[in-house]
Amino acid sequence: MFKENGVLILTPEHVQIRLVPAGMGSRCFAWFVDAVIQVGVIALIVAIGSSLFGEETGGFVIMTMMFILTWSYHVFFDLRAQGRSPGKMLMGLRVVDERGLPISLQQSFLRNIVRVLDAQPIFFYGFGGLVALLHPEHRRLGDIVAGTMVVSETQTLDYPGRIAEGRQFNSLRTPRVQRLIKHKISLDEREFLLALCLRAPKMDDTPRFDLMEQVGGFYREKLKIDDDHLSSENLVRGLTAIMFEKKSD
Prior knowledge:
- This protein has eleven helices and five strands, in the order E-E-E-H-H-H-E-H-H-H-H-E-H-H-H-H.
- By secondary structure, it is an alpha+beta fold.
- The protein has two domains: 2-152, no CATH class; 175-248, no CATH class.
- A five-stranded antiparallel β-sheet has the order 1-2-3-5-4.
- Strand 2 (6-10) and strand 3 form a beta hairpin.
- The two termini are 42 Å apart.
- The model is unreliable at 155-169 (pLDDT under 50).
């Protein structure tokens, strides 16, 4: 959901967080800082390669190292520095999944492959800059394709993973829902839901979010649960908490 002063997203625990898309000025400066760093490293590679290897071998080694650096620089920082390259860290920016989650290897690889198109014409990301300027969330083509966005880092996203801890009130504790749980959820399903909730804290954010969305959506439809304020993950945890209490009675 886009607002004039940011994008509202819901965490798996249904906590509302506002993500503020990075402005064009800060993104351009971050890009410039990263470009200067890459040029400096390439110059160092050229100097070392020229002194250690002959002309033919040195040229091959230099080109190989330049290729690796060019394609791995942003992917490395996307994954190892939680979406913050040195330029982005300096400007207080971060690349995130469009749902506010950390980006995956596939997303990082895709958004950086599309840099080839974003950089056309070569001078200052002409095409990518135009797309970002026109997009309401300032997303370049690579961000649109990969489902990512660059945001101003105003707060750290945290996704706790304990059963039913996110809400003090369980809106599923109604006679109707409890009757449906009793008659429509089998023993195998109950064991699956319990295993899922116990396993969830050990899962990475993105696969946990996606799995909870699928499972929660299935039981939202199966039990005819109409609660816009209940996230899929809280729905799964709430159902499991009710069934666990039933077993302990």
